[in-house]
Specification:
Layout: H1 2-19, E1 29-34, H2 36-39, H3 59-67, E2 71-74, H4 82-89, E3 99-103, H5 111-120, H6 124-140, H7 142-156, E4 161-165, H8 185-208, E5 212-214, H9 217-220, H10 247-262
Parallel strand pairs: 1-2, 1-3, 3-4, 4-5
Keywords: Hydrolase, Signal
GO molecular function: hydrolase activity
Pfam family, one: Lipase_GDSL_2
Length: 265
């Protein structure tokens, strides 16, 4: 009789157990930190954001619009170095922040001046020398800056998920390119290699301090400058949008990579 009564009780209780609501998910409180790539400089920035040039088409704003977090603030700013992120932006993170994204490191390597050198130098060696200097900074300066940023976030919000979104390669590989003002194939290859060096250094630093690196290079493959469908703003577009992701680059490149990382356990 006892086994029969037990079975009967399970049959009666099972529907109720199955129907019990799942625990409500904790509200997401999201803060976006970083430089021009996080701000959305290449995607029609809002003039009201001044020199920071934040855009509603940036990856942080797109994610927030799609997922409707309990709170969202982006303090990403064009031209920001990691030191400036630590000094001016990390304070936006509070104890109840649950999600933080960071894109920083490009300005620590001299992103703008290196591109300018490679676009205007009369000889390849001048460009390659600038790239080598940027790669040294990518290996020895940018990781420390990212670590300081992550540590600052952890002090403010110890339990927050921290996603570090990297940088795409700027140019589609290959010798052919009919875009005016673009560096030659030798220089483009060197600049793409520098992006790889920076991403590798940032990924290693993020992993060491409980951040999760989000690699966007695969998402942008086939869509660099010189491709048939570029998601990076090519010259001769006016500064500062040039060499930054377009609105499509944020929507179809950064956003899917961000969403996949944010839902990963």
């Amino acid at each position: 009789m006892v086994p029969l009564l037990t079975c009967a009780l399970l049959i009666v209780l099972a529907p109720a157990a199955l129907a019990a609501p799942a625990p409500a998910a904790a509200p997401v409180r999201y803060v976006a930190l970083g430089d021009s790539y996080a701000a959305g400089v290449g995607a029609r920035p809002d003039p009201a954001t001044g020199d920071c040039r934040r855009s509603t088409a940036s990856y942080p704003a797109l994610w927030a619009a799609r997922h409707d977090p309990a709170s969202f603030v982006s303090v990403a700013c064009s031209g920001a170095t990691s030191g400036e992120v630590v000094a001016r932006q990390v304070r936006a993170v509070s104890a109840d922040t649950t999600l933080v994204t960071i894109t920083v490191g490009g300005n620590d390597t001299g992103f703008g001046p290196v591109l300018a050198a490679c676009s205007t130098a009369r000889d390849d060696e001048t460009c390659l020398r600038a790239v080598r200097g940027a790669e040294r900074a990518a290996r020895w300066v940018a990781p420390g800056g990212l670590i300081s940023t992550i540590v600052g976030v952890r002090l403010q919000a110890p339990g927050a998920t921290i996603l570090v979104l990297g940088y795409p390669r700027l140019f589609e590989p290959g010798a052919d390119c009919d875009v005016p003002g673009v560096p030659n194939a030798v220089r483009r290859e060197a600049l793409n290699r520098a992006a790889d060096t920076l991403d590798a250094a940032l990924a290693d630093a993020a992993g060491r301090f409980r951040g999760r690196f989000v690699d966007v290079r695969a998402a942008f493959a086939g869509h660099g400058i010189c491709s048939a469908d570029p998601w990076i703003t090519p010259p001769p577009s006016s500064a500062p949008a040039v060499y930054h992701p377009t609105a499509q680059g944020y929507r179809d490149g950064y956003l899917p990579a961000f969403e996949a990382a944010a839902t990963r356990p």
